[in-house]
Design a protein that fits this description.
The chain has a single domain, classed as TIM Barrel. Helix content is 37%, strand content 14%. It has 10 helices and 8 strands. An 8-stranded parallel β-sheet has the order 1-2-3-4-5-6-7-8. β6, α7 and β7 form a beta-alpha-beta unit. The mean pLDDT is 96.
């Protein structure tokens, strides 16, 4: 049986030799945490992954998207991107990024806090007008305060790492319940990724499995995508790419559901072509 075609919807590229880190970066990845565009291509090829969504990191680069844009150009259609921009980024700036292969803008609430994004309404409106995604990383109950603004914005919403719930608080916790409720908008989707960020246990992160199942039930495979989070920045323990693919097969044993999450849904949502 041929393997499923795959799209990895959350990776980073760090190339400090060609693109030095910002002096005020909150964290500067080093050693095995780094990975160039060439390294990324090698990893994807080794695991039969055709495309990837490269997310501009706050770590290392802050608001500097040059490394991201270089990787998109090198990929020649293999990659799409999520950029990091100022809240007052203009429509023209967003259009330039979009023309270079950017499909969304990162809202890193888990790092910068809820208050940092309270004035993001105008940016969300520009994203809605351009058909770009607001990629939102929240943790625990941060989504509760932001949900009204996100829901009212009309923007397309892409949530990182299963919403990063508290692994001990259960699927009924307020932040995760808010995430499940947003499935009803029809314009939200979630990355089934980063289980180590919502687990207190080692691989295969069994305490995170109920959150994955709840997301599958609420969103269905037509609004879910898979991601590795390569190159595993600040991981609490060693993570390898292959076991993450194996784990996903355990979490979604239905082949049609995996086909949707690994390939059909991200192709439709982010505009990937049929092959690299």
């Amino acid at each position: 049986m041929p393997s499923h075609p795959k799209i990895d919807c959350h990776v980073h590229v760090f190339d400090p030799a060609r693109f030095p880190y910002a002096a005020d970066a909150w964290y500067q990845p080093s050693g095995g945490e780094t990975g160039t565009a060439a390294n990324l291509g090698q990893v994807l090829d080794a695991h039969g992954v055709q495309h990837a969504l490269i997310v501009g990191p706050n770590s290392g680069y802050g608001l500097d998207n040059r490394c991201l844009l270089d990787a998109l150009a090198q990929g020649a259609g293999r990659y799409k991107g999520v950029a990091v921009v100022r809240d007052d980024a203009s429509r023209a700036e967003l259009q330039d990024l979009q023309a270079a292969g950017v499909v969304g803008v990162a809202f890193n609430v888990a790092l910068l806090g809820v208050d940092f994004y309270q004035g993001a309404g105008p940016l969300l409106e520009r994203l809605r007008e351009l058909g770009l995604w607001a990629q939102v990383q929240v943790q625990v109950d941060e989504l509760v305060a932001l949900k009204p603004m996100l829901q009212d914005s009309g923007a397309r919403l892409l949530f990182d790492h299963c919403g990063r719930p508290d692994p001990a608080a259960g699927v009924g916790q307020a932040g995760f319940a808010a995430l499940l409720a947003l499935a009803g908008t029809g314009r939200a989707c979630v990355k089934l990724s980063g289980l180590t960020k919502c687990s207190a246990r080692p691989y295969p992160y069994p305490d995170a499995w109920p959150y994955v199942q709840a997301l599958v039930d609420a969103y269905t495979p037509q609004a879910l995508v898979w991601a590795s989070d390569w190159p595993f920045l600040r991981a609490p323990a060693r993570i390898d790419y292959g076991p993450l693919l194996t784990l996903f097969e355990q979490l979604l044993p239905d082949a049609e559901a995996r086909q949707a999450v690994w390939w059909d849904t991200p192709r439709r949502l982010f505009g990937f072509g049929p092959s690299a």
